[in-house]
């Protein structure tokens, strides 16, 4: 889900060339779910190899990463570890949404409504057990570093920016700012021309940059207060938030009262069953590690070909060309 701070957080649209030479720590699961949702057949079926294994995630990861490296961007991927206990409610909510979408997808297929079917199919994406391991293997062959986080990938990616090991945290979710990411860049893995869901309208999606210090200054809040704003709206650790409270109202309440607990005194009939301090601790003191190395190396062409083409049925010609462009980007 991520926290809905759209329309509240100031952002700057940039061109990819401004990211050249910069290190971007990408929330791997966030990116993989995007690839699984977007890279599908017209009827919503994901890409598969001859054995029936889904390869949409590998296709997105390989070609998108190759393009970014070609542009001189130093990408690294951070994989989720164990989710905090407070995330259990959100995990169950997501599972329910996927199950309901699957029923609607199957009905749309029976009725021959392919566009609807594809839309519902995107909502059913699941990260199967073999997908993270496949992704790590591919990245290793590509010479792209990856980090196994002990808990939330976004928190670890944000930590890299706080240490100065990465210039940006790459994610679609604004939660990165709550975790302390010094700079967040959205739309790194999904930029380009995209069709709006259930509409025959296309929009140009470009990278958007948010700097934490600028965000806090523009909103005139502390990071702790931004976390309180998020809790009123709803986070992965209290998905319901306070019913009827959107980002702008939440901001006004926190600026007026100073903190969530005081703001709730004005919302006397509001239901807020979460424990604010436990959620604050997850964002302010997340479980992260210093046990990582960021090293970008020349891709192992034959290793990539063996895995993608001989084991997963990718086009060898396309794969070799993409790796060649990667190598050229590394030398610039």
Low-confidence stretches: none
Q: Give the termini separation.
A: 38 Å
Structural class: alpha/beta
Shape: globular
Q: Return Rg in Å.
A: 21 Å
Describe this structure in words.
The chain is an alpha/beta fold and 332 residues long. The chain has 14 helices and nine strands. The chain has helices spanning 28-38, 56-70, 88-110, 114-122, 130-142, 153-163, 175-178, 212-219, 223-233, 247-257, 260-266, 276-284, 301-311, 316-331, and strands at residues 12-13, 23-27, 74-79, 146-148, 168-170, 183-186, 192-195, 202-205, 208-211. It has a seven-stranded mixed sheet, sandwiched between helices. It has a two-stranded antiparallel ribbon with strand order 7-8. Helix 7 links the parallel strand 5 and strand 6.
Map the helices and strands.
Elements lengths: L11 E2 L9 E5 H11 L17 H15 L3 E6 L8 H23 L3 H9 L7 H13 L3 E3 L4 H11 L4 E3 L4 H4 L4 E4 L5 E4 L6 E4 L2 E4 H8 L3 H11 L13 H11 L2 H7 L9 H9 L16 H11 L4 H16 L1
Parallel strand pairs: 2-3, 2-5, 3-4, 5-6
Antiparallel strand pairs: 1-9, 6-9, 7-8
Helix pairs in contact: 1-2, 2-5, 2-14, 3-4, 9-10, 9-12, 13-14
């Amino acid at each position: 889900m991520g926290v809905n701070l759209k329309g509240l957080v100031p952002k700057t649209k940039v061109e990819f060339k401004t990211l050249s030479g910069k290190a971007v720590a990408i929330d791997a699961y966030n990116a993989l779910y995007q690839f699984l949702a977007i890279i599908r057949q017209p009827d919503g079926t994901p890409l598969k190899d001859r054995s029936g294994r889904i390869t949409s995630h590998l296709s997105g990861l390989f070609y998108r990463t190759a393009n970014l490296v070609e542009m001189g961007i130093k990408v690294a991927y951070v994989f989720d570890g164990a989710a905090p206990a407070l995330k259990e409610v959100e995990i169950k909510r997501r599972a329910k949404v996927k199950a309901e979408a699957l029923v609607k997808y199957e009905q749309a297929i029976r009725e021959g409504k392919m566009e609807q079917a594809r839309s519902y199919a995107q909502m059913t994406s699941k990260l199967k057990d073999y997908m993270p391991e496949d992704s790590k293997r591919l990245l290793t062959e590509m010479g792209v570093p990856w980090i196994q986080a002990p808990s939330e990938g976004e928190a670890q990616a944000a930590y890299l920016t706080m240490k100065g090991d990465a210039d940006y945290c790459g994610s679609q979710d604004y939660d990165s700012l709550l975790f302390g990411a010094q700079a967040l860049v959205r739309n790194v893995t999904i930029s380009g021309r995209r069709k709006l869901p259930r509409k025959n309208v296309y929009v140009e999606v470009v990278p958007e940059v948010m700097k934490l210090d600028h965000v806090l200054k523009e909103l005139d809040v502390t990071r702790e207060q931004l976390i309180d704003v998020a809790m009123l709206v709803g986070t992965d650790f209290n998905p319901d938030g306070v019913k009827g409270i959107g980002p702008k109202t939440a901001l006004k309440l926190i600026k007026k009262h100073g903190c969530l607990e005081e703001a709730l005194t004005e919302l006397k009939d509001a239901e807020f069953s979460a424990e604010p301090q436990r959620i604050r601790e997850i964002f302010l003191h997340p479980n992260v590690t210093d046990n990582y190395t960021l090293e970008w190396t020349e891709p192992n062409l034959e290793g990539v070909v063996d895995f993608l083409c001989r084991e997963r049925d990718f086009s060898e010609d396309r794969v070799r060309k993409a790796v060649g462009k990667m190598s050229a980007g590394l030398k610039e």
